Amino acid sequence: MPSLRKVVIPVAGLGTRFLPATKAIPKEMITLVDEPLIQYVVREAVSAGFTDIILVTHSSKGAIENHFDHNFELEKTLAFKNKTELLEKVGHILPNDANIISVRQPQALGLGHAVLCAAPIIGDEDFAVILPDVILNNESIDLRNMAASFRATGHSQIMVEPVPKSEVDKYGIADCLGAELNPSESSKIAAIIEKPKLEEAPSNLSVTGRYILENNILNLLKVTPKGAGNEIQLTDAIAQLMEISTVDAYCLAGTSYDCGDKLGYLKASVEFAIQHPELGNEFKTWLKEYMQ
User: Fold this and answer.
1) Cβ contacts of residue 243 below 8 Å, gap of 6+?
2) Per residue in 221-243, pLDDT tens?
3) Backbone angles phi, psi at 107, to 5 degrees
4) Which of 5, 40, 125, 280 has the most other CB atoms within 10 Å of its CB?
5) Given this model, what pLDDT does residue 2 score?
6) How far is CA 164 from CA 122, 173, 204, 207, 252, in A?
7) What does the CA dihedral 234, 237, 241, 247 come to, rounded to 10 degrees?
């Protein structure tokens, strides 16, 4: 059974879509209600059974590492003031059995390059990749299902979800040879086509920011030439992997939110505020009043 312990989370991007908010604050530290985006995806990974969280980071992103470290002065102050609930929240952001490991990506040369930066830590193990801009509303369920499919079949897994036909030209689209996937199902991918024209799209299954990959893709990335944007693209290496191994599309069962996009972030903020255990009811009441 393939071992899955390590997950790569690329956080070195400059967050230009959220300027000026991200001029001094990492985009991954923007909050969704009361937690930063990065906390959601790390919790997702840990809840799905991953223990080694590899952050591919940049010199300007120290706040992310600090977030997962202990702030002893803050914790001491909260304890002194008997603010036990807040102390519990800030003192247990990262479970004891999980590790945060940081590596630098000195230049923004693409997602494939970010994964290569993590290769010395990945070693010879299979691994996952999570894009921190994409937040799922069911936390670890889909990632856990992907891992189970990977262990059962040995096939790399790429998360996909249906999008409106009119929007296929905005995404990487999986060609599953006409297979119609139900949520939580996997099917072999014949190709991934980047932003196809509507009339040329083989399906409406868009790639959604979660990957579980066999280790051999690292060797392919080392020889993958620069592609779109003059960057090393993970999608190009996956296309090479399909020539020698089976790669499956896993269909998302929950809902995804592109929090790297302003509108997507606003949608997520409303949804997560409604679901919030402390604020949800009050927020829903206010929202109904506001919409009248």
Assistant:
1) none
2) 999 887 777 788 898 899 899 99
3) -135, 145
4) 40
5) 59
6) 36, 12, 7, 13, 15
7) 20
